[in-house]
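**Protein record**
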Amino acid sequence: MIPERNIFLENVCYTPLVFGRLNKKLQQNLSNEEIKSLVDKIIKDDTTTIIKNGKNYYLQNGTVELVINSFNYQLITANKI
């Protein structure tokens, strides 16, 4: 079962390394706050699809896919689609 979007918004957490990883994968130079804002925007967007595969959730929106751990809601990485 896929949780509601507000569960993701309330529980998503970040490690210090994930900010650098996201900038590298998305080929951006965003600040930590800009990354958090981007993640919130993707989660809130009604066109974002949420898929659970194994221990991760994959949130796909346009050209960006977020990978979030399903046990602790830790953001793992982002991928360009």
User: Anything to note?
Assistant: The mean pLDDT is 96. The longest strand covers residues 56-61. Residues 32-44 form the longest helix (13 residues). The two ends are 24 Å apart (CA to CA).
